[in-house]
């Protein structure tokens, strides 16, 4: 059965979610009310307290399935690894991802949400996770969560070097302390010859144009080939997209948490997320809106190193989405689901 065509058809690049947390989602389960939280520590505690009736694999699979139906063909999934939960979440998300291969490419980051140095045994679990489905080594706020920038980065880059993996670090820390950590990550990236293989997620400090050392820091990031990812989250700062472009900083867009203990919002649709980025950054022109779509699609494909998602060869390309829309700019505003999702010539039918 084919969907009747009623309006204009637009072929567009497939979408890529550069930063998502499938192990935490409640997708596919009854509505869950959330507890208040003012600080990162309180949000993390809520996460620790979260209880689910269904397995991590089933919840992750429900979210990943919805993402594919909405045109996401690759994602970088940050999955909790800690001494008290072991590597179970990594195994579960990898199993969910395997059920959607080859339509969906999933890279898993071993994410020490609950602290790396401050939660003893976590580094060993991260090392183990690389044998059971994790691809990259993660980190979180070396100063703000672990209180030891050198020690945290020694552990993250040490494990990455030992295992030959790339790095993707969450950095919520703002202000000069945040910028200092961004420069230190860039410095280590160059020193270790890891240009193009290191990502910093959120990087709120890099969104603060009032900081005197911001521009210098963006230059260090660009020189080191460090990627930044943003999720255009409601209460948090977003990058100045023009400034990032002026400094040659490479950026991709992600969902972050989807309907988890951190936020009731999110759908897993990167069209929705491109819309939110456009809204948060005051997009006005078609070029502004098209940039948001590019950050949600080919930029993410380049970050993940997935060839058929990193470039767009035009409407006849065998990996594409087909939307009922007149233009990319319009679809970022209207947020339709794609009529068809096609990867390497095969139509996704769910
Ligand atoms: Zn995150």
UniProtKB/TrEMBL annotation:
Keywords: Hydrolase. Signal peptide: none annotated. GO terms for molecular function: cytosine deaminase activity. Residues 11-308 form the Amidohydrolase domain. Pfam families: Amidohydro_3 (PF07969). It comes from the Bacteria. InterPro entries: Amidohydro_3, Metal-dep_hydrolase_composite, Metal_Hydrolase, Metallo-hydrolase_Enzymes. Coiled coil: none annotated. Its EC number is 3.5.4.1. This is Cytosine deaminase.
């Amino acid at each position: 059965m084919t969907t009747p065509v009623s309006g204009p058809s637009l072929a567009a690049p497939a979408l890529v979610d550069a930063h998502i947390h499938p192990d935490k989602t409640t997708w596919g389960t009854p509505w869950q009310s959330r507890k208040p939280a003012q600080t990162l520590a309180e949000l993390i505690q809520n996460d620790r307290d979260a209880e689910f009736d269904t397995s991590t694999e089933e919840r992750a699979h429900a979210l990943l399935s919805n993402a594919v139906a909405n045109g996401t063909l690759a994602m970088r999934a940050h999955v909790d690894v800690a001494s008290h939960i072991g590597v179970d979440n990594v195994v579960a998300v990898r199993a969910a991802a395997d059920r959607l291969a080859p339509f969906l490419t999933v890279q898993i980051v071993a994410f020490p949400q609950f602290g790396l140095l401050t939660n003893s045994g976590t580094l060993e679990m991260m090392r183990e996770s690389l044998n059971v489905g994790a691809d990259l080594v993660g980190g979180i706020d070396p100063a703000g969560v672990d209180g030891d920038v050198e020690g945290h980065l020694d552990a993250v880059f040490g494990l990455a070097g030992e295992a030959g993996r790339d790095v993707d670090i969450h950095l919520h820390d703002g202000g000069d302390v945040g910028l200092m950590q961004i420069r230190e990550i860039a410095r280590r990236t160059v020193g270790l010859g890891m240009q193009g293989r290191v990502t910093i997620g959120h990087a709120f400090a890099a969104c603060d144009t009032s900081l005197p050392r911001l521009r210098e820091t963006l230059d260090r990031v660009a020189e080191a080939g460090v990627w930044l990812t943003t999720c255009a989250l409601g209460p948090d700062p977003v990058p100045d997209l023009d400034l990032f472009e002026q400094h040659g900083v490479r950026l991709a867009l992600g969902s972050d948490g989807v309907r988890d203990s951190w936020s009731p919002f999110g759908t897993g649709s990167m069209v929705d997320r491109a819309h939110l980025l456009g809204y948060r950054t005051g997009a006005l022109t078609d070029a502004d809106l098209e940039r948001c779509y590019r950050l949600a699609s080919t930029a993410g494909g380049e970050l993940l190193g997935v060839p058929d998602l990193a470039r767009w060869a035009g409407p006849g390309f065998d990996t594409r989405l087909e939307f009922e829309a007149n233009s990319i700019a319009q679809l970022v505003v209207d947020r339709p689901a794609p009529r068809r999702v096609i990867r390497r010539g095969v139509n996704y039918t769910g």
